[in-house]
Automatic annotation (TrEMBL), chains A, B:
SUBUNIT field: Homodimer.
Subcellular location: Cytoplasm
SUPFAM superfamilies referenced in this protein's UniProt entry, alphabetically: Class II aaRS ABD-related, Class II aaRS and biotin synthetases
Keywords, comma-separated and alphabetical: Aminoacyl-tRNA synthetase, ATP-binding, Cytoplasm, Ligase, Nucleotide-binding, Protein biosynthesis
NCBIfam families membership: hisS
Name of the protein in its database record: Histidine--tRNA ligase
EC number(s) recorded for this UniProt protein: 6.1.1.21
Keyword DNA repair: no
Pfam families: HGTP_anticodon, tRNA-synt_His
Top class in the EC scheme: ligase
Entry's family note: Belongs to the class-II aminoacyl-tRNA synthetase family.
Length: 490, 490
């Protein structure tokens, strides 16, 4: 028998995997987005804000998680017909928008976009189902000058938001070179799609598994520390050697790396084309002064996404942070992208070349926080306390004057009965100063100003004598309040 | 027999009722949001960005469309359990966030929030299912000083974004006064909920139907121009007179209006309380200099939402625009809000007073556009054209220098074969200038600068002689390019 359920109160919590952002978390992210948009804009990119909801057919199946192409989005069916979903990135919507508006948009179309995206994935610690991306893409430019430009811009963005040169590197590779290596290894045909997929994912795990682990995955397979076995691509030693040579082609200089890659791709036409493109990108960047201290060619970069067709790139932060177990580790990737010449074709049937980058804003914010490079906590408002409940209009007039002078200020609007609560509130808000005016002060046209920053300092350090002098409290004439506070806040 | 369907290309369009925003549309809205946030911040409000997705139980059923309380949201069921939905406003999420974090948040909690909200409504012309709101609320302040503050802030916001004083008015009323009038009219009891609902909706239609139309809806009902009949509340003449007297209590001055309202509510305790609150709000605003040229007491304001419990307010733009049929009409409401003391109680069981305003940012932008008060179109980048495909690195170096000097610039990245297309592109981008450098110019260390703004002017006005002089094109030494362009762009 079903028990009768009591009506209950709704739970005050967001859905699993979602979170809220408060005060400085919001304003810090906004400052970062503004700084990134400034650089994008300087490079000639235009803003685009596409709708958060797309038809499922327009989104297509390009989720990063190649193992679950049918999952990963939040989707629902419209009353009458179509399935729609929340966007999972900003690239699929761009392809739809460009295909829809290609007659009126300029070509090439440089656009930037920023905003939340949603992934219907299993939430975990620090892993949320809504997060920000901040993208820039050039649609309709076949030249790898567009890829080079985006890599240069990515470097500029990182330095603009506070990552010092030397603390990051932008790595570039080219899918065509990988395809050349696969061709040389005899993995080119349509019947080898599955094996190529395993190879791609194996290379992508180099960071985590090391060269030996990848080698095992290219061959028979790999047993991990827990004893679990992952099937390998089943390549012969010769085949695996080719792939390992590709991955390991990185050298001291770009020219040496390119030479090593030329060796790997041998007679492959697509491979040679890829190496030539990398060469061209390197020259373009060199001409603008972006040397290997900022941007390097790195054959180990493959990027997980299946839709890339040419240059791929990612930005990695190279400084060490301490992980949750206290061990030092590199911070890792904060941005990535590449050339995807087929996404618009899905809609139009015409080839439209495109390339672009996506910056993981939340990860970049975390990196700056880890380096102690975020702004100090934002200052709270000056709080005008309420001594006489009947004189609320006077207190409101005081804050009105302060705001007119550009000073952030408010009257305490809670229950004024307990004065201590008013000062506790000011503390909690991070207020720099509290204003106090009783009837005596009002009659004399003055207020008491409590310097809460100095007060907190004195509370920790001051002697009894210093306390008695009470240097953190000053009587100030109403007419002098604005200049007095300006000095205190400076 | 089912026909075999051909595989087809996805349609390149957003779901019905959704749209995209391009370039200046995005940056203008951003500029407005920044300006509003600045005022909110100055008043002591803190940013909050809650998740876009909420559990359906947390959202509750408070949609503005009281006739369809179960509809209007985009909702779906999570794999394992809960129904979740996209937020339909920013108030319901605030109530959830405050209930969840009430131990750690300061009280009163002043917060502002801005972002898209979603309504699952029938789309129509100019009516979209995703739009921006920009809210400020004070939670935990029982004093009507909090309501007065928000009305003052709303007035400041409108003037800050470019609505001149005299072109708007903030109207204030109080649900308690309405409840007093309903009590006097004998409509107070629990058994009169339906009648009260009809009365509320009738008053809300005053703008559209006029006093006679409302009166008909209070009584037997109303036949509209198309012959359709709407049932009325079935009030007696005396009852209807009381409601009409309430609505029509607006007088020349606030004091006279308050006196008229006192007459209407007679012996009703709640009514008298409401009038006293309005009186207090008026005094507080008066003390800060917000007179009836900005904020007035207007008994015809009721606001549709069922959850308001005290003061309600809205901002109306009073200038005329021309509607789609060429007739002049007032622009109307762009913001509204009020006191809702019960929303947090749903979660906690404890009474938590709250009040706040929501600004319809898209409507406000439309109003500014209608008044011709939006910034001119944003200037496009300087476009460096490609004369010699092989010298792409040189062109990239030129734009790199311009960007370093803070000048928005880009190299043309389309197919450079047809030079006319490059200039057409620059026109389409709204570029102020195009840079041209062939091998001859390169050898001499100069570029040609085409002033596209002047060029467009000449194309319309110039004589043959003026054309021949070609004053819109100048040869400039590379070393002088930055100062030359700075002057041209100024």
């Amino acid at each position: 028998m079903a028990k009768q359920q009591k009506p209950r109160r709704p739970k005050a919590q967001p859905p699993k995997g979602f979170r809220d952002y408060f005060g400085a978390e919001v304003t810090r992210r906004k400052a970062m987005l503004d700084a990134i948009a400034h650089v994008y804009h300087l490079y000639g990119f235009e803003a685009l804000e596409s709708s958060a909801v797309e038809t499922v057919e327009a989104l297509g199946k390009f989720l990063p998680d190649v193992d679950r192409p049918n999952e990963g989005v939040f989707a629902w069916q419209e009353d009458d017909s179509d399935w729609v979903a929340l966007r999972y990135d900003l690239t699929a919507p761009l392809a739809r928008v460009y295909a829809e508006n290609r007659q009126t948009l300029p070509t090439p179309y440089r656009r930037y976009a920023m905003g939340p995206v949603w992934r219907n994935e299993k939430p975990g610690p620090g892993r949320f189902r809504q997060f920000y991306q901040c993208d820039a893409d050039t649609v309709g430019a076949a030249s790898v000058a567009a890829d080079a430009e985006i890599c240069a811009m990515l470097s500029d963005v990182l330095e603009t938001v506070g990552i010092a040169r030397g603390d990051y590197v932008v790595r570039i590779n080219n899918r065509k070179v990988l395809n050349g290596a696969l061709e040389v290894a005899g993995l080119a045909g349509d019947d080898k799609v599955a094996a190529r997929g395993i190879v791609l994912r194996a290379i992508d795990k180099l960071d985590r598994l090391g060269a030996d682990g990848v080698r095992a995955l290219l061959g028979a397979g790999r047993k991990d520390d827990s004893g679990d076995f992952t099937d390998g691509a089943g390549l012969s030693d010769d085949q695996a050697d080719t792939i390992m040579a590709f991955m390991g082609a990185g050298r001291e200089t770009g020219a040496e790396t390119l030479a090593a890659l030329r060796d790997v791709v041998g007679d492959s036409t697509v491979g040679a084309e890829g190496v030539a493109e990398l060469d061209q990108i390197a020259s373009l960047l060199d001409a603008q002064g972006y040397g290997p201290d900022r941007i390097i060619i790195d054959p180990s970069v493959v990027r997980g996404l299946g839709y890339y067709t040419g240059p791929v790139y990612e930005a990695e932060l190279t400084f060490e942070i301490t992980d949750e177990k206290g061990r030092p580790r590199q911070f890792g990737s904060v941005a990535g992208g590449g050339r995807y010449d087929d996404l618009v074709t899905r809609f139009t049937g015409q080839a439209v070349p495109a390339t672009g980058v996506s910056i993981g804003v939340d990860r970049l914010l975390a990196a700056l926080a880890a380096k102690g490079r975020v702004a100090d906590d934002i200052q709270g408002p000056v709080v005008v306390t309420v001594m006489d409940r009947d004189r609320m209009a006077d207190y409101q007039a005081i804050v009105a004057d302060l705001r007119k002078a550009g000073i952030r200020a408010e009257v305490y609007l809670g229950n004024p009965k307990n004065f201590g609560n008013q000062l506790k509130y000011a503390d909690k808000r991070g207020s720099p100063a509290a204003i106090i005016q009783g009837s005596d002060e009002a009659a004399r046209g003055v207020v008491q100003v409590k310097d809460l920053v100095l007060g907190a300092k004195l509370a920790e350090e001051a002697s009894v004598e210093e306390w008695k002098e009470n240097p953190s409290q000053s009587e100030v004439a109403i007419a002098d309040l604005v200049p007095f506070l300006r000095k205190l806040l400076a």
